[in-house]
Amino acid sequence: MYFLVFVSKRLILIHILAVVAIQLFLTRSVSCLNMTNAYLHHKCYVTQGKYEPGSEYEKHLTSITQTMRLTSDLSKGYEMNGFSWGGNFVSVMVQCRGDSYGPKCRSCFATALSGLRRKCPKYKGGLVWYEHCLLEFSGKDTSYQIDYDNNLCMNNPKNVSDQVSVNNSFGMKWMTLVSNLTSIAIKKENNDLAPLYAAGERSFGTYKLYGMVQCTFDIGEKGCRESIGYNMVHFQDCLYGKRGARVLGRNCNFRFEIYAFVSNSLKM
Description:
- The protein has helices at 20-28, 30-34, 56-71, 103-119, 169-185, 188-191, 220-234, 236-239; strands spanning 3-7, 39-44, 78-85, 88-96, 126-130, 133-138, 151-155, 197-204, 207-215, 245-249, 252-257, 266-267.
- With 268 residues, it is of the alpha+beta class.
- The protein has two domains: 3-35 and 148-267, Gnk2 domain, C-X8-C-X2-C motif (Killer Toxin P4, Chain A); 42-138, Killer Toxin P4, Chain A (2-Layer Sandwich), CATH 3.30.430.20.
- Strands 1-7-10-11-9-8-12 form a seven-stranded mixed β-sheet, with helices on one face. Strands 2-5-6-4-3 form a five-stranded antiparallel β-sheet, with helices on one face.
- Pfam families: Stress-antifung.
- This is Gnk2-homologous domain-containing protein.
């Protein structure tokens, strides 16, 4: 079971854990887990208001999404398109997980498109997260800006055992893993293959610790590091002492677990 903690510039984070026996089973089953595109959460941008049926806003939003569905192969897992007219603006952004590009990304985009329209009907803006992608509609230009408000934390309420958390060693391990993965993700030589994405694993006693970080392409290397660093501190009460956690945001997301949840993770 996951618990949610929302971020609106003053809040905190965490995720899920497993026993070593379950860990081994889940490690073998990573390919199955990786195929599950579960809905995670959504947020409607209420302050942007709603559009009228048949309005210019609806026409341009529909045009952008249809063009993306028909012409984009999403081979790099990210696309953002916008249109402005008479002082108005509409944009659509999709970001897929680093191991879910191409056909899998297109499939998640179609699912998220349907899901966001259903969960935020006629709202000019909104954001939805699925396991393999995130999708945003917006009536404002949000590109190249760090979003400190639209973030949340999902965690498992179970704490790490006293033996494992001695001297906060578990917390130090996952923080180090996420920090190292962030450094890998922002290296320019990696960006041609999977922009601002990295996944890895490292041993921790009888456990293996798995992690993943990803940022949207528009905020760049500096924004990626800043966004992840901000959320690690901002959600500390949700993250620390837990067996696993994930943070979802408009600009970045990261996750740590004691079981494998993505393919092709680096040994750290």
